[in-house]
Prior knowledge:
The protein is of the alpha+beta class and 207 residues long. The protein folds into two domains: 3-100, CATH 3.90.470.20; 106-206, no CATH class.
Amino acid sequence: MPLLRVIESPRFSLGLVSLAGNQAEDFVRLNETDQEIFNSFTCDRRKREFLAVRALLDQMTTGKGRIVYESARKPVLKGYAGNISISHSASLVAVLVSDFRCGIDVEEIDRKVDRIAPRFLCKEELAWTTASNDSQKTMIVCWSAKEAIFKWAGIPETDFRRDILINPFVSEDQGTITAIFRNGEHVSRLALNYFFELNNAVVWCVE
């Protein structure tokens, strides 16, 4: 379960670990609560994700941080100052820690999203993503961006098509995109960063 990289910034710390290879049991010591949760899993993939997140967090916080969950299953960081956001795909786990509100999402770029795109993209977004230089990657980045904003906002009632608007961009190996988040009459203008790792789009928001 190799560590891919940890990106350190004055505003955040972002860690990535591959789910390939051996489990992380030899690299992380679970507390009693986490051990009980781990023992309750019957799916090997879920166990690997759980261990990978905690092994990565252990390294990023020098063993000080631990994860607890609010009633809505939102992860909260204890024992270490900051906020946390977590995401995983079939091949990659990402952890984002920041003093600011934050959200991260990873999605494998070969997922077929064109059929479900109307569920998360509005008509304007569908038009420009379909006409973009790489519609598949662009739609994946948009989907991942909206997931990251959803986590950043922490509002369960958020409608991806109505409340989150991604501004047009040209898909590159890495970059910055902008978006608008609407919560009633309040409008937030957000900047998100993205890059690709192990055939995954990695998109995050820190505001």
